[in-house]
Amino acid sequence: MSDHAADEKKKRKGFQVRPGYVVQAYMFALDPGVEVEDRLRSHCGAARAAYNWAVGHVLAAWAQRSAEASYGISEDERTPWRSWSLPPLRKTFNAVKRTDPRFAGWWAGNSKEAYTTGLAHAAAAFDSYAASRRGERAGPKVGVPRFKAKRRARLSCRFTTGTIRVESDRRHVTLPRLGTIRTHENTRRLQRRLANGTARIMSATVSYRRGRWQVAFQVEVQHRTSTPHRPEATAGVDLGVATLAVVADTDGNVHHIPHPRHLNSELTRLRRASRTASRRQGPDRRTGRQPSRRWRKADAERTRIHHRVANLRTDAIHKLTTSLAAEYGTVVVEDLNVAGMLKNRRLARSVADAGFGRIRRQLAYKTAWCGGRLVVADRWFPSSKTCSRCGVAKAKLPLSARTFTCETCGLSLDRDHNAAVNLAALAVCSTGTGVAGDRDAAASKPRRADRKTRTTAGTTRDRRGGPVAQNPHQAGRKRETVAKTPSPGCGDTGTDLPRGNARDAEP
């Protein structure tokens, strides 16, 4: 898609952030009473019910068309496609909600925004599925939207119209049909901006996360132009498991940020809580057995530990990314394959506990807010295998080697320290080979090697010159595994999609 087409697509969406403003979220924990909590759960349940209705409404037409095709019915005589875009779904839902037995008795007790939330989520799910089938969506293949179960669905509801207000006492918020709800924390950081006219609330989303009801306000905030404390400094950030981050700047300063290991510190308590819960009488859906009060108490304690770990991790990542964005004018990070790292069962727990993906995502928008820039090094850039003094790159450097030693210049230092220095030099290096430390010499391959290792020979020779037999399954095998991209329709059990822009088909 060209830049002009992308701009036209953005204009058709209708909303554009005003110059000098940014869209930011403000999240506050709620402290609802029993009656208000019942209304919150009713609205979130209504959103889930509307989502399931929309998914069933569209998939029913797909199943009918598939059956008609098996009977030999022509395309013109088959059941017409049903649109999955939001306006037709909302129009059809409003026409049937008064007579449909699933909604007739209770739909009027909730705000219309609850049902719109579910319909919008269903439309987005079908859009993602269609884009994935066409090969226009990055990431893993998306399957056909599925129904949301009551026991596993996340409780969430979004409000875009009606009375959405942060009260002046800074302890209450007002939402449509829910009324005024007390907050668990002070709302002064948002109320001050609303009072002086530098912020505008666009929407509010209530959700039940980590054992608490929370409200997140999507706010258009006036952004003041700021500069980092050291705008000319460049910092290379090497993320790792042993040490969360090694930060090396162009002034020669190196900072080692230890790994908090929040999950490891709570594993003993978590195991004890899990054992306690396993010895209680828990629920059993096969027999209909209800959990005992002792199990509910033990399960609540186990969940509280998980929530504590998640909150500590979130707080630590925010503090790290904020300090980096506010200090340096340029921050360089690596394009890590986090999904691939999580497949290593020996490192998966530590990698997930570190939150590499969240660190990069937060640095992306925080550096922009602070007036800096974020440079993402190529995934194949050999930051750990390149000497930060002379620029010579090693062919191999196993993970077990924690100290980098250069055979050319004799440099010896920690491998994470060496990688951070190379990343910092990468932003400064704008010409030459692209390898840190080698800014003038011309080279066709900055890595000193191909990305795909050549196929090895079928036979080798020993020291005496004679041939040595090899495993026939290993002969000719590449030394590096290359991920194979599946075809968009490979292994998909879903029905065919309508041709053209089917999301806007007539209902």
Summarize the structure in words.
It is a single chain. It is built from eleven helices and 16 strands. The protein is α+β, with helices and mostly antiparallel strands and 507 residues long. Among the domains are: 46-148, no CATH class; 232-275 and 308-379, 2-Layer Sandwich (Nucleotidyltransferase, domain 5). Strand 4 and strand 5 form a beta hairpin. Helix 7 crosses helix 10. It is globular.
Number of DSSP-assigned strands: 16
Count of DSSP-assigned helices: 11
CATH structural class of the domain at 232-275 and 308-379: Alpha Beta
Helix content: 25-40%
Identify the overall geometry. Answer: globular
Strand content: 15-25%
Radius of gyration: 28 Å
Q: Briefly note the structural class of the backbone.
A: alpha+beta
Major sheet: order of its strands? 10-9-8-11-12
CATH topology of the domain at 232-275 and 308-379: Nucleotidyltransferase, domain 5
Instruction: Give the overall average pLDDT.
Output: 83
Q: Describe the biggest sheet?
A: 5 strands, mixed
Report, as a whole number of angstroms, the end-to-end distance.
Answer: 29 Å
> Residue ranges: pLDDT <50 for 5 or more in a row?
1-8, 430-495
Please give the CATH architecture of the domain at 232-275 and 308-379: 2-Layer Sandwich
H-E order? HEHHHEEEEHEEEEEHHEHHHEEEHEE
